[in-house]
Amino acid sequence: MTTEQTTSHAAGPGRVVVGVDGSPGARVALAWALAVAARDGATLEVVSAYPVDFYWVDPYLLDTNRLDAIRSDTEQRVHEFLAEVRQDPAVAAVPGTAEVETDVVVAGGAPLDHLVARAEGADLLVVGSRGRGGVRSTLLGSVALHCVAHSPCPVVVVHPGAMAPPPRVVVGVDDSPAARTALQRAAEEARRLGATLEVVAAFRPEAYWSDLYAITAPPASETEEHARARTGQIVAEVLGAGAEADVRVVQGAPGEALVERADGAALLVVGSRSRSRVVGMVLGSVALHCAVNAPCPVMVVHPHPATGEAVPAAAAAGTAPAPAPAPAG
């Protein structure tokens, strides 16, 4: 099924959106999204965009036939790309991927705004870490960065990388509302994957310019114990007493600590403290660092646009991402 870009979308449960452009990154993202949709019984919306240049046959008429041809060619390429990924042995080995209902959506123009628009009312938006952009040295593509910053639903950036058994879901925690929601969502993902939940809290001892302040500063060991105790309290408050979680308290910058712990993980979940519509004011530094540098898929949980509080995990129940083997090639 193929549709054009529209302004309203179905609000029913079980819709996963994935952006594709034929790149290796898009191939991994599509494989990952197929596994999500297969597991959760969701519809998969495969979104692609084609460039719109103005082809004039005279000063007043737009050559719509040329644009229609570009659109048709893009549709065909997306369907072929989808078929190739479905037939990849690693993807076909995931139960249910062949039966996932898909809806191919193509639209003219830049993909950034189209993906964010299609994500309205969706349960999850999935993008590759890099697409077909010309700047190959960029760690996070412009489309992925835009989606992470502006998506109205949880967004997963899929980084190529091997998952080490047994599966782990890593989540970064502090005392913020966004981190609490990330913790709740991460626990749901861990249950669905049969994975261990690893809760990571990072601390940095204060560095004072004057040695006189060192008289009142607590030692690092005391700060670590306080952080461990507080993290345990947060886990109990959010997940309930007796919840199974592997609490890790590490010294260092939170972003770097999370990226290190995410090595070999099935998923890294982080909360974003804000989602601004102003370009340049997009993410907390930790969420951005993880989205750019993590060696595994990263889920960013955004605040509610009206209240500024984190989006409740229950709003996206049933659409947690699942790790899928990377397609061949």
Automatic annotation (TrEMBL):
Protein name per UniProt: Nucleotide-binding universal stress protein, UspA family
Domain of life per record: Bacteria
Sections of the chain in a coiled coil: none
Family classification: Belongs to the universal stress protein A family.
Domain (UspA) ranges: 15-159, 168-302
CDD domains attached to this UniProt entry: USP-like, USP_At3g01520-like
InterPro entries, per database record: Rossmann-like_a/b/a_fold (IPR014729), Universal_stress_UspA (IPR006015), UspA (IPR006016)
Pfam family, one: Usp
